[in-house]
Amino acid sequence: MNKKQGRLFSKVAIVTGAAAGIGKGTALLFAEEDASVVLVDVNEEKLNEVAAEIRQMGGSCEIVCGNVGLMKTAEEAVACAVNVYGRLDILFNNAGIMPVGDILDYPEEIWDEVLQVNLKSMFLMCKKAIPEMLKRNSGSIINTSSVMASLTEPGYTAYSASKAGIIGLTKEIAVSYTEKGIRCNSIAPGWVETDMNVRLAESMGGMDKLYPIIKQQQPLGRMATTREVAYAVLFLASDESVAVSGSCLSIDGAASAAI
C-alpha cells in the first residue's frame, strides 16, 4: 500500500531557529508531512543532529549555518532552497533570543542584538523569500511572536518590543502580498517546553519552582509541547489555511484570555 501523501507534499520550507525548541519540532513535523526543509541556525552541531533525524525518517533536508540577523544568511538560505529544490513555498521565521534586564541597566548592544535576531532577521528573510514566492504567486510565511508582545512582565525590555514588532511586520506583509498569493501570519506562544525555559527553571532552582508561576499565568496548567505548537504552524503553512492571512494565532493555553 502506498504511503498517503502528507499535508505539505512537494512543498519546500525554510525553518529558522531549527536546531532546538519550536524550530526543531516544526522542522521534524514538516518533514513528516513530506516537505523538503532547509534548516537554519547558528548552532551547527545541533543543526546536524536535526538533519540526521529527518534523513533517518526518510525526509529531505539541507542545512545553512549562520546568524539570521545578517543578510548573508538570508541569501544563503533562500538560494539553498531554490538551487537544491527548485522553489520556495514556506518560510517559518522562528529564531529568537531572550536576554533579561531592566531598561535602566540594559546595555545598548544587547538591545541591538535582540532586535537584530528577533525582528530584523524576519525582515531580511522575507525580503529574500518573497521574490521567489512571487514567481508562483503562492507562499506562506509564519513568524514566531509571543504572548509577551501584549502581556509582559518586568525585565523583558527588548524581547517584548521585538515580539510586538513582529506582529506589525506580519500584518504589513499580509496586506501588501495576500492579493498576490502570499499569506503571512504570526503565532504567539505562551509557556512552551523549550531549552530556553528549561534553563530558566534551572536558574530558579528547578522546574518545581517554575511550575507554580506557569499554573498561575497559563490556565492550561502546564507548558505546551513543541509538537503542539508545530501543529499550529503546520496548519498555517498548509493549503488548509488558504483564507488566513494577517492573523496572530495564540498558542498560550488561555493565558492571553485570563485576568
From TrEMBL:
Keyword Oxidoreductase applies: yes
Keywords: Oxidoreductase
UniProt entry tagged with the keyword Oxidoreductase: yes
GO terms, molecular function: oxidoreductase activity
BP GO terms, sorted: bile acid metabolic process
Domain of life: Bacteria
Entry's family note: Belongs to the short-chain dehydrogenases/reductases (SDR) family.
NCBIfam families to which the protein is assigned, alphabetical: PRK07231.1
The protein's name: Short chain dehydrogenase
